[in-house]
C-alpha cells in the first residue's frame, strides 16, 4: 500500500480499531435513534408504532416486576417493522418515503426576489417547512475505490443513527435450508446480527419482505423465514394493490385489532388517502 493513501491513519491492528471505535457506543448513546423516534413520514403508521411500543414497555415492566429484574430498555424502545407483500404493491416506495423523511431538513430558509410597482427588487425571506428529521446520510462505495482514510474516519466518527432499512430482508434466503447447514445458519445469524444492531445503537429497523411460495388463490403467503426472525419483528404490515398500479393498502392485523392505511403513488411520491 502506498504511503500517501494510509498516511492519515494511525498504525493499529484491526482489533484495536474496533475496540477503540466501539468503546463509547451502547444503548442510548445516539442523540437521535429511537429516543427521538425516527419517523416514517406516515403519521398513522408512526402512531401505530408508538402504540405498539407502549404495549411492549408495559409488558416488559410487568415481566420485570414478576422476575424482580430490570426491564430490557433496548428491546422495548426499538422496533423492527416488517412490510410484506407481492411485487408492485408499493413496499419500496414506502421505505423510500421513510428515508426521505429521515434525511430532509425540518425547514429550509429561502430568499425570494420580490418586485414592487416601481420595478425595484427586494429580497423576501421565506421558510419552507419540509417536516424532515435533518439526519445525515453515509454512503460508502467500496467498488474499486476503497479509501482507507475515509473508512477509518467513518468507523471512528460518533454518528447518530436513526433508521436502518433492508430491501429486502429475504435477499439471503434460498429453499434448501433444511438440507444445507450453511444456509440454515444464515437464517439464525442474520436476525441475531440485526437484533444486536438495534440494541446497540437504539435504531428503528424497517424491512421489506417479498411474498414467496404463495398458493394460487390465497390471500397471504406462508411464512418462510426463520423463527428467530419472526420473534424479532415487533410490527408486521401487509401491502396490497387495490386497483391497477395507483391505489394501495397497508394493513396491520394484531391481537384483536386491525388497522388499515390506504395510499396512492404518483410522480410526487406517496400520498395517504385514509387511515
UniProtKB/TrEMBL annotation:
Name this polypeptide is given: DNA repair protein XRCC2-like
Alphabetical list of InterPro entries matching this protein: P-loop_NTPase, XRCC2
Domain of life: Eukaryota
Annotated GO biological process: double-strand break repair via homologous recombination
Database matches in SUPFAM superfamilies: P-loop containing nucleoside triphosphate hydrolases
A cellular component annotation (GO) from this entry: replication fork
